UniProtKB/TrEMBL annotation:
<dbReference type="GO" id="GO:0051539">
    <property type="term" value="F:4 iron, 4 sulfur cluster binding"/>
</dbReference>
<keyword id="KW-0255">Endonuclease</keyword>
<keyword id="KW-0326">Glycosidase</keyword>
<keyword id="KW-0238">DNA-binding</keyword>
<keyword id="KW-0378">Hydrolase</keyword>
<protein>
    <recommendedName>
        <fullName>Endonuclease III</fullName>
        <ecNumber>4.2.99.18</ecNumber>
    </recommendedName>
</protein>
<dbReference type="GO" id="GO:0006285">
    <property type="term" value="P:base-excision repair, AP site formation"/>
</dbReference>
<dbReference type="InterPro" id="IPR005759">
    <property type="entry name" value="Nth"/>
</dbReference>
<keyword id="KW-0540">Nuclease</keyword>
<feature type="region of interest" description="Disordered">
    <location>
        <begin position="1"/>
        <end position="24"/>
    </location>
</feature>
<feature type="binding site">
    <location>
        <position position="225"/>
    </location>
    <ligand>
        <name>[4Fe-4S] cluster</name>
    </ligand>
</feature>
<comment type="function">
    <text>DNA repair enzyme that has both DNA N-glycosylase activity and AP-lyase activity. The DNA N-glycosylase activity releases various damaged pyrimidines from DNA by cleaving the N-glycosidic bond, leaving an AP (apurinic/apyrimidinic) site. The AP-lyase activity cleaves the phosphodiester bond 3' to the AP site by a beta-elimination, leaving a 3'-terminal unsaturated sugar and a product with a terminal 5'-phosphate.</text>
</comment>
<dbReference type="InterPro" id="IPR003265">
    <property type="entry name" value="HhH-GPD_domain"/>
</dbReference>
<dbReference type="GO" id="GO:0140078">
    <property type="term" value="F:class I DNA-(apurinic or apyrimidinic site) endonuclease activity"/>
</dbReference>
<feature type="binding site">
    <location>
        <position position="219"/>
    </location>
    <ligand>
        <name>[4Fe-4S] cluster</name>
    </ligand>
</feature>
<dbReference type="GO" id="GO:0046872">
    <property type="term" value="F:metal ion binding"/>
</dbReference>
<dbReference type="InterPro" id="IPR003651">
    <property type="entry name" value="Endonuclease3_FeS-loop_motif"/>
</dbReference>
Length: 233
């Protein structure tokens, strides 16, 4: 007698680990060794000409793509590559130039406000201290981490959606929020990989370890991945 469809046995979905165990130091070293071999000189994909324009670009990149930001800032940075020039440009014109970017009204207001504060409190220079950076309008911990890393060569771990996803999937620094992942990366990433670690993680998440359709077949660390999202048979 045939078995009714409703009674047929189905394979249970893969179990997701709620409290995954972080990888060993040797495994983390191997992962970043492969990332370095794949991309020896990883770089951020935002266009900028100095520390000030980098800061502005990162502020504008919140909830926007790097490609979209670059398209908008090309003309903006031609007109204003210093706080003084940005302030002279004015909020209305900045808003018009960046209107293709999400949340452009509030971002334009922040760009003008941070430019004014840089002039009044920091001698028109982008500060190196984290606390000073985070005191600027529109600048949070992630933005400060990016600027400190790229502009000043500090070892920081800026956690965006890509870094958060990859760090959890690969169990490099599992965490339930961005701060947990950032602090986990500080402990887990070997010093020799520290400067470029967040770039490798971003690029891997953006082009390979995607949120919905990860390209596991072309992943350089697929054999080390035990994520429930893995798509290799």
């Amino acid at each position: 007698m045939p078995v009714p469809n409703s009674a047929k046995r189905r394979s249970p979905p893969p179990k997701r680990i709620t409290n995954p165990k972080p990888r060993s130091a040797a495994e983390v070293y191997e992962i970043f060794s492969r990332f370095r071999q794949q991309r020896p000189e990883p770089k951020g994909e935002l266009d900028y000409v100095n520390a000030f324009t980098l800061l502005v670009a990162v502020v504008l990149s919140a909830q926007a793509t790097d490609a979209g930001v670059n398209k908008a800032t090309k003309r903006l940075f031609e007109l204003a590559d210093t706080p003084e020039k940005m302030l002279a440009l004015g909020e209305d014109q900045v808003r018009e130039l960046i209107k293709t970017i999400g949340l452009y009204r509030n971002k334009a207001k922040n760009v003008i406000a941070l430019s004014e504060k840089l002039i009044l409190e920091f001698g028109s220079e982008v500060p190196i201290a984290r606390e000073a950076l985070e005191s600027l309008p529109g600048v949070g911990r992630k933005t400060a981490n990016v600027v400190l890393n790229i502009a000043f060569g500090e070892i920081t771990h800026a956690v965006d959606t890509h870094v958060f996803r990859v760090a959890n999937r690969l169990r490099i620094a599992p965490g339930k929020n961005v701060l947990q992942v950032e602090l986990g990366l500080e402990k887990a990433v070997p010093a020799e990989f520290g400067r470029h670690a967040h770039h490798w993680l971003i690029l891997h998440g953006r082009y390979t370890c995607k949120a919905l359709r990860p390209a596991c077949e072309s992943c350089v660390v697929a054999d080390l991945c035990d994520s429930a999202d893995k798509r290799i048979a």
